[in-house]
């Protein structure tokens, strides 16, 4: 091969080309100075709802399709990247892709929190990978560290600020003395909060994410619907001011905690008074953090941008590259 020539060996299909999808394409189409395996990846198909919208970055002609099933059944595609969000058609498409021997990368916390077991079982049977680093903590590596680097520890607690929208709102309320409604409107204007902010402000998004983290950290199955969940709608400027006088800030925490004998687990999401001295108290704006406590390690805090195009796409593409690395190793060993 001549130097500079692109050696394309792995074709991927994207389901969805919204914010994270375009961020993913931007990284893959600009591999210079990044992981050399990016040069082995080609975006073969991108599934979208409509072909009429202008797209940036522009993709080669013929790549966009509204036929999402054609992506998960395409014999040339080895990795399907699910960026649709929501439960359906995501669940069905992921299962169909697995049945067709595709590896999966997903940023979809809702589908993994509720249907993770079904999806992992299908993947085990098919001998394919399902990676989901982007589903929790945006760009912060948290799934892989929990599974691998911290895996030999007996985990006692996982506490996260794992919703960027609510953390932004609480931070603004604290800094400006403003009320929830005012800051939510401002956050929507700035594009930080969704037009329908329910999943974020009522804590459901954080509950999906802690269900995933708890299942990895503690093993076993977490029933998402059993997680008690309270959001931040009822927090007002007076609560925040009283907390401040007493030396606390208010944060929406997602908590998974084992009991002393390590034989039962509490998982919950609710606004919490956090001492200003605590490391989580200084996690502000759209940043996320996950504090893990285990034996013998003690405490580790993973901190960084918990949402946004580049951050989330970084996690998605890292998972793609991980799978490509494994597939290349397997090919070499065959
Ligand atoms: N709506 C989510 C948040 C996006 O605000 O954290 C990232 O999962």
Description of the molecule:
There is one protein chain. Helix 3 (90-99) links the parallel strand 4 and strand 5 (103-106). With 334 residues, the chain is of the alpha/beta class. It has a 6-stranded parallel beta sheet, with helices on both faces. Strands 9-8-7-10-11 form a 5-stranded antiparallel beta sheet. It starts with 9 loop residues before the first strand and ends with a helix. It has 11 helices and 11 strands. The model has no long low-confidence stretch (mean pLDDT 94). The chain has 2 domains: 10-138 and 310-333, Rossmann fold; 143-306, Dihydrodipicolinate Reductase, domain 2. The radius of gyration is 21 Å and the shape is globular. The chain has helices at 19-28, 68-72, 90-99, 109-126, 143-149, 164-176, 180-189, 198-201, 204-218, 237-245, 309-333, and strands at 10-15, 41-47, 64-65, 77-82, 103-106, 130-131, 154-161, 248-258, 265-275, 287-295, 298-305. The site of L-homoserine has 8 residues, from helix 6.
Structural class: alpha/beta
Shape call: globular
Domain module tally: 2
**Sheet with the most strands, sense and barrel status:** 6 strands, parallel
Percent of sequence in beta strands: 15-25%
Number of helices: 11
Q: Strands of the biggest beta sheet: in what spatial order?
A: 3-2-1-4-5-6
- Overall pLDDT confidence: 94
Q: What is the total tally of β strands? A: 11
The arrangement of helices and strands along the chain is EHEEHEHEHEHEHHHHHEEEEH
CATH topology of the largest domain: Dihydrodipicolinate Reductase, domain 2
> CATH first level of the largest domain: which class?
Alpha Beta
Distance N terminus to C terminus? 22 Å
- Portion of residues within helices: 25-40%
Name of the CATH architecture of the largest domain:
2-Layer Sandwich
Please identify which CATH superfamily of the largest domain we are dealing with: Dihydrodipicolinate Reductase, domain 2
Radius of gyration computed on alpha carbons: 21 Å
Can you list the ligands bound to this structure? L-homoserine
Low-confidence stretches: none
